[in-house]
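Late entry, evening session. Most of the bench is empty. Finally got around to the prediction I had been postponing all week. Sequence below, unchanged from the version circulated by S.P.
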Amino acid sequence: MIIGCPKEIKPQEFRVGLTPNAAREAIAHGHTVLIETQAGNGAGFTNDDYVAAGAKIISTAAEVFETAEMIVKVKEPQPAERKMLREGQLLFTYLHLAPDPEQTKDLIASGCTAIAYETVTDAAGGLPLLAPMSEVAGRLAPQVGAWTMQKANGGRGVLMGGVPGVGPAKVMVIGGGVVGTHAARIAVGMGADVTVLDRSLPRMRYLDDVFGQQFKTQYASAGNIAELAEQADLVIGAVLIPGAAAPKLITRAQLSTMKQGAALVDVAIDQGGCFETSRATTHSDPIYEVDGVMHYCVANMPGAVARTSTIALGNATMPFMLALANKGWRQACEDDPHLLAGLNVHAGQLTYYAVGKALGIDVISPQLALRQ
């Protein structure tokens, strides 16, 4: 198979879909790998690194899209890239379609087959291709939250860990999954007073068993969220419903009850955000203020640490990428129902229920798509 990796063009996105190691593995399996020139520069991988792995350097994204049978990316295809997708072509990347009707419409119109990293599952019920970026984003969230709370950035001027005689910041983490757990660990390490909220009692028991008294847990009821939001210096939104739009857990009206200069970090912004006042921002202009509350809503947080993120993502995606290339997408998905769960679009039809529900679009089952 001819595998193509274009340079990411979303603003301040420095990751790359294929590492030189992943390219080397694909080539060892008999495939051809095309890399757009300088695609890996942002993550510290040069053209020479890819050439040494056996890949071919291509001068333009258009040529990569025109030639490749499978496109491997990091972020969802941007409008210019979606125009280059074609019928029968395989796209393997993050998509986050539920809050993005325009992208969904364009992918359906292209006739391509699109498999989304974020909805591929595993035997334990996890999301193995989302997990590494969730780990990165979770660990970044307290770091960027601490920065947002600095007075020069419009925040309350509160130090995460306090100092002797001055209490630490109060941090509320909504969601006890991968993002929330990693966020809580880092926030505790910075000395903050941390509470994690979740709706799963088994998950809260797990957190209590593993982390003991390092941080507190509470049930994520609307009342508890509202009460803790009033006390919080920093709120980290870490809620995920696989493939679906994120629920709105703090409303615009609730901002007036919060401390002036408090910070909201919305890690769920790729899925539309879990705060009513969230809107996607970029690394070059990451924060904004609503009703005295600072919002950090960068849609590609892991891109800030592009090398770590690229290698972590490549480690996770490589086995699935090789299965798709070795077997073709139909056989690979037939053999692995967890990979089939990643199928979002095929041949002009939507194949993921949560996206169809969010956008009001008819859906066919992925099993039916396999037979088309």
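Two things to note before I forget:
The radius of gyration is 21 Å.
The chain has two domains: 2-119+306-370, 131-299.
Will write this up properly tomorrow.
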